[in-house]
Amino acid sequence: MTVHTRTALVIGGGVAGPVVATALRRAGVEATVYEAYDSAADGVGGGLSIAPNGQDALDAIGLGDVVREVGRPLAGTVLRSWKGAVLGEISVPPGLPELRFVWRAELSRGLRDAAAGHGVRTVYGKRLERIEQDGERVTAHFADGTSASADVLVGADGIRSTVRRLIDPAAPRPEYAGLLGFAAPVADTGMASTGRRLNISYGRRASCGYLVYDDSSGGWFMNLPHREPMTVAQARAVGTDQWLRTLREAVADDRSAAPELLRRTDPADLLITGPLETLSTVPTWSRGRVVLVGDAVHATSPSAGQGASLAFESAVQLARCLRDLPYAEAFVAYEGLRRERVERIIAAAARTNRNKANASARIVRDVLLPITMRIAMKMLRPGKMTWQFDHHIDWDAPVPGTVPVRAGGA
């Protein structure tokens, strides 16, 4: 096997960065992660689910056990109205692994440690300022005056990606979805187990998702409609006590588990995850020796339950392409393998967010969703609903030299 790319700089040490670097090392590329913050952000982020397709991608590069060790199994989701009535249930398609609910901080720490075990080095305090390219190398220049060079540079630096802006100043910016996110673990919910099912209550003024385990511990997340966008820093400046009061007021009239969960939440445990944002179609996925991966190029909102899983898929596919093709051909093949799929999932999540942020849509949804779901289950072709989850990447399969890029659809 001819190795066309031998070294890589990975910008961003969150969830995607360690996975990209590990996949590249497995493909024979020496990859180093450069993180802007001075230390690992172990206390950042709320909860998220890793879908079967995300677990499959991690298994392809030997990281699947990380999710199984830190995650709790999820057999599906129960959708409820603000009155507590069941609107519908969604289960993992038969024959596929259950989803896994993880706290982002635990997942990030586990992936970082596992990547280090595969020989990946992470360098902290390296905030990217500019990129230079020539015919042979790409060089990253950091705010502390240092620089690093390699054959390629991978931007895994999230939805507010500096790399995306540097390769295309006209690239789209994140779009606020009209919602602020909050989450918290609860040591004792005082409730019965939810039976490995995430319950989502579409409240009158906020939506709440929650899990309760067999020992009565659990956790929740909430999406609170908020007209004006706030940065994470601005939201955190409000303070946990004030936000808990606001959240309790928002669910006070709901006949759901949300009021009790909030009552039992310690302000010290509240995670303020900030604005829910999406990213519209990114025209430029790569330029020269620089390429984007994960939320930097295809961010979807938490409503999709696929953000991290899609990032893992893209990391593995990018590594396969760089293993088998010269970098310019590899980037074209990578985009061809990924664009249609990720844009289709992003479009579906955007529709969900509009429903959450619109009160009149809630009324229509509560009335029509049970009927709509029954009709959909009868009319959809076999296997149609599994397309997001049943996505396998064959690591050993060679990547063809030309993979056409196609725009996604709903």
UniProtKB/TrEMBL annotation:
MF GO annotations: FAD binding; monooxygenase activity
Keywords assigned by UniProt, alphabetized: Monooxygenase, Oxidoreductase
Highest taxon above the source species: Bacteria
Annotated ranges, domain FAD-binding: 8-323
Classification via InterPro entries: FAD-bd, FAD-dep_Monooxygenase_BioMet, FAD/NAD-bd_sf
SUPFAM superfamilies on file: FAD/NAD(P)-binding domain (SSF51905)
Protein name stated in the entry: Monooxygenase
